[in-house]
Structure formats: structure tokens, C-alpha cells
Design a protein that fits this description.
The chain is mainly α. It has two domains: 16-104, Serine Threonine Protein Phosphatase 5, Tetratricopeptide repeat (Alpha Horseshoe), CATH 1.25.40; 115-224, no CATH class. The chain has helices spanning 17-26, 31-44, 47-60, 65-77, 83-103, 107-118, 122-125, 128-141, 148-164, 168-181, 186-193, 196-206. It is globular and about 50 Å long.
Length: 224
């Protein structure tokens, strides 16, 4: 199964951001700690706090993962922002991911940068082919240790990129290859069984910047 569980964050009391930030600062390369911190930020809608904190941390420390965490902090803010601001948040997220990739190319970083590219209007920005290239790179870097949930997302996004370019046959080929490897994945099944109208809305909804995506990383990174 490639289903990703939802992270439940207690909301009865205000999060102790200071304590969470000290833990993340002590282990800046720990994606799990940073993800838990960001989910608390999402619940409190304190997006600028996590961006400022992780940006400062990335400037003070070295390593690829802190840049991934910063990129996700930008992504977390996207649904609450206006159209123009979303463009800049996406740009900043991709810049952070590029710094991560420059240090250490990983499946997760290439997947994230590729996916973000797909959200841009291709007629104006022409970024979808770049997204497809990143997603193909993510698929090429994958190994038997790559989490199944991450692979399912890569196959879905790669097909969505081809679909957005009008390459429906290529999209279906990718989704089919993914479903052959992961026959229980609901997202891939939905794309392959939908009629033309339904498929349009599945991909449109998946790439809607106003729709919050799961950035908890549950199921997408290996346990430490």
C-alpha cells in the first residue's frame, strides 16, 4: 500500500515553538524533526515563523536536508497566499531544493522540485518540461530502499506532467508502469480508470495551488 497517514497535531494548547526550534537546530539534517515542527506551524498558521527560522538555520549550517525542510516551509504557505505571492514562494522553494541537490542529489529533492514546476502555467513559464526532467531523475535515482509511497507520488506526478502537456498517451504509460509496481495505489488507479472529463479534474485538482498538500513526509522518508 502507498497510502500516507495523516499527521495528527494536538491543538488543545499552543505549541511550544521555542522548544521545537531548539530540537530542530540541534539536528538540522533530521527531516522528521523538521517535519513535525512544520506541522505544528501549519496548525497555528504561523508560516512566516517556520520560513524565517529554517532560512536562518540553512544559512548557519551545512547539509542538504535543511534546505529540503526550508523548501517545504515555503510550500506550506502557498495555499494561504495570493496568486502573485505563490509564484515567489514556488521560486524560493525550488531555489532551496537546488541548493540541496547541489550538495546531494536525492529522490525526494528531485521529486519535490519537479512537482513544484508542474504547478506553473506552462504557456507563460514553460516549466512543465523541467518538472518532468526532475521527476525522471527522481525515478532514475530510486532504489529498492526508496519508500513505496514516494515512488507512487513520483509516478502520479510524472504522468500529470505529461498530461498537462497534452501527452495523454505518455501519461497513461507512466501511470500504468506505476500501477504495475504498486497495484494497490488508489491515486494511480483513479487516473487510469477515469473517463476524459474526470481525468481532467483529477489532474487539475492535484495541481491546484490552493489545495493543501501533505508535507508531513510520513511514509516518504526512511525511519532513522
Amino acid at each position: 500500500m502507498c497510502a500516507v497517514a495523516s499527521l495528527v497535531v494536538a491543538t488543545a494548547a499552543a505549541p511550544d515553538f521555542g522548544s521545537l526550534e531548539r530540537r530542530v537546530a540541534a539536528e538540522p539534517e533530521n527531516l522528521r524533526l523538521a517535519a513535525d515542527y512544520r506541522q505544528a506551524v501549519v496548525q497555528a498558521a504561523a508560516f512566516d515563523r517556520s520560513i524565517d527560522f529554517l532560512d536562518g538555520l540553512a544559512k548557519r549550517t551545512h547539509g542538504p536536508n535543511v534546505h529540503i525542510s526550508l523548501a517545504l516551509a515555503y510550500v506550506d504557505k502557498v495555499p494561504t497566499s495570493g496568486e502573485i505571492r505563490r509564484l515567489y514562494l514556488g521560486r524560493d522553494a525550488m531555489a532551496a531544493l537546488s541548493k540541496s541537490i547541489d550538495q546531494q542529489p536525492t529522490v525526494l529533492a528531485h521529486y519535490m522540485r519537479g512537482l513544484i514546476n508542474l504547478y506553473y502555467n506552462n504557456f507563460i513559464f514553460h516549466r512543465v518540461p523541467r518538472g518532468i526532467a526532475d521527476l525522471e531523475r527522481a525515478r532514475a535515482l530510486a532504489s529498492s530502499a526508496t519508500p513505496a509511497a514516494l515512488m507512487c507520488r513520483i509516478y502520479a506526478a510524472l504522468g500529470d506532467g505529461h498530461y498537462k502537456l497534452g501527452e495523454t498517451a505518455a501519461a497513461r504509460e507512466v501511470w500504468t508502469a506505476g500501477l504495475q509496481r504498486y497495484p494497490d495505489d488508489a491515486d494511480l488507479k483513479a487516473r487510469l480508470t477515469a473517463d476524459a472529463t474526470r481525468l481532467h479534474w483529477i489532474v487539475t485538482d492535484a495541481l491546484d495551488p490552493g489545495r493543501r498538500v501533505d508535507t508531513s513526509l510520513i511514509g516518504l522518508i526512511q525511519a532513522p
